[in-house]
Amino acid sequence: MTGLAPAPAYPWPEGKTSAFCFSVDVDAHAPWLWANRDRVPNLLGHHEQRSFGPRVGLPRIASLLASHGIKGSFFVPAIVAEAHPWMLPALLDAGHEVGLHGYFHELVAQVSDDQFTHALEASIQLFKDQTGQAPRGFRSPAWEMTPHMLAECRRLGLYDSSLMGLETPHSVDGVTEVPVSWATDDAIFFKFLGGGGDMAPPLGTDAVMRAWTEELQASRRYGTLMMLTVHDWISGKAVRAQMLDKLLAHVAGAPDIWIATAGQLAGHHRAHAADRDMVQATLPASPLTHPAWKDA
Ligand SMILES: [Zn+2]
Predict the structure, then answer these.
(1) Which is the most buried residue in 74, 154, 240, 263, by most CB within 10 A?
(2) Homologous superfamily assigned to 18-34+44-279
């Protein structure tokens, strides 16, 4: 991975030349609760908007996947699983993968290493209690990671799906990484909470369908993984589910695309490509310590 020679093509399973993963970050009310953890406001708006996810959005997305014969990876904050104890068992019964997404959707910059570890271990325990099995994968809330978090994933044998240093599965500090991408995350296009805090109105589905169709074409051309990430309360809405239906029809009709869960992608990487694309997550020193820098 140094120099100008293109990297050798990623070894997808026999007959496949690119990959597609349908992932869902089942945030529901968790980010709202975490953001208001010091004092939960006596306001229903955001809580109701997000509660649409478990009520309607998630079942709608699950039906859509079933109609295309696609298994997804659902990353669920433990506090959402606590509030909806049917969720993890139902997803597993339908053949999907469930993975970790924080206990409270806690943001890494707002917790200590110890707090992160405590919440991670508690979330694994909750998954075991509710499903009888340990989750295999972790996706960080808001897709930020630290060296400590990677070390904990390595200690617990978890793959990670939060970083985007490559477009195909690889390893970071010895942890199998199934990369994500902001451009194929529904939140950046559609998330709209009202109250004046939004940067722009939500995009229409025409624009997003065009962008994601281009992403799919480019993924097939360059042999990458297209990691689609949607949210229960955002893409579970009727018009967006209708758009996803069209996109999934394209994906399911393409014989060259390997449609896999994040866990299957991680397993394939460990079994068939573990010796390539090994990244060390060392951070550079501050420029202010560089000999070319001079204090005023
Ligand atoms: Zn999330």
Answers:
(1) 74
(2) Glycoside hydrolase/deacetylase (3.20.20.370)
Q: Where are the domains of the chain?
A: 18-34+44-279
| Six token digits for residue 83 | 């509030």
- What pTM value is reported for the model? 0.97
Q: What is the pLDDT of residues 217-231, one digit of tens each?
A: 999 999 999 999 999
Task: State in Å: Cα 228 to ligand 1 middle.
Answer: 14
Distance between Cα 144 and ligand 1 center (Å): 11
132: confidence class by pLDDT, cuts 50, 70, 90: very high
Please give the distance, rounded to the nearest whole angstrom, from the Cα atom of residue 152 to the centre of ligand 1.
19
Q: Using one digit for the tens of pLDDT, what is the confidence trace for 171-194?
A: 999 999 999 999 999 999 999 999
CA of 294 to the centre of ligand 1 (A): 41
